[in-house]
Amino acid sequence: MTSRFDLHHLFAACVLLLAWGVCSTASGAERSDYPTRPIRLLVSFPPGGGADTLARIVTPKFAQSMGQQWVVDNRSGASGNIAPEIVAHAAPDGHTVLLGFNTVLTVNPSLYKKLPFDVARDFQAVTQLAAAQYILVLHPSVPAGSLKEFIALAKAEPGQLNYSSSGMGSPLHLAAELFKNRAGVNLVHVPYKGGGPAAAAILGGEVQVLFGSFASSLPHVRAGKLKALAVTGLKRSPVASELPTLNESGFPGFNVTSWYGLLVPAKTPEAIVKKLHQEALAALKLADVQEAMGRQGLEVTTNNNPAEFAALIRNETAIWAEVIKTANIRAD
To answer: CA of 65: how far to CAs of 38, 279, 285, in Å?
Structure first.
């Protein structure tokens, strides 16, 4: 015969099991209902720049397919470190996302003694979105018509050729330093305050060499005002397929690009990461998105999963750490 005591405990156990089941169901429903409110996309640079333009190309597509607004939140300053700091300390629920830029994530950890975030610890990679190659150009006065001739000239005249960049530790600076290391040449760095002044310097003959963006350099190559030698990606650029890559020109594995990708706070549920990854890939396959990115000189990435993106970040961080150490680069 069951006692009152046993019945009381049996009833309490049933209540607990029922409550657990309800909570579990609610939790599962919450995950499957993601997103439940507008999503904030943090961008490290001000409105009007390349990162902001990319954000405003993809976020309307995300909003349309996910049923929630995506709000672009530009947090510039501190060498791009403000936006990732905010995301690193946000709730891991998929409603705060970072539009990551490669130099902020892979260069700044070696360039600055202390950062308010740790890339490996504080972030979960989602996917790379797009990348832009650089182009190695010379002033027409340089007596070299090919990469081989340029390297031979630089070796014959060490320290006599200058290259411009958009500043210490900038992508243009690091691309040139990596090339110097791999080619064994001595080029003198002349930093400028921005890509525009760096491009103007080579056009005016103040410097002879530049690793420039396609947007700022290719029109001048087409006009005969600059000589192009090679591009910096692993594959030839679709907008200048006649130019060889450094990768195929005696520098295997040479791959320097400006890239953007999505990251979320660490410990974000796998289901949310998967959802964001799928939404990004779907948006990147749209013809109007690809066309809009192409106008910005960006090549769309449509086959990059979270593990591959995380590996890219780790690998580039190691490469730039070595370059920064070898060249003794310090932040301005």
So the answer is: 13, 8, 13
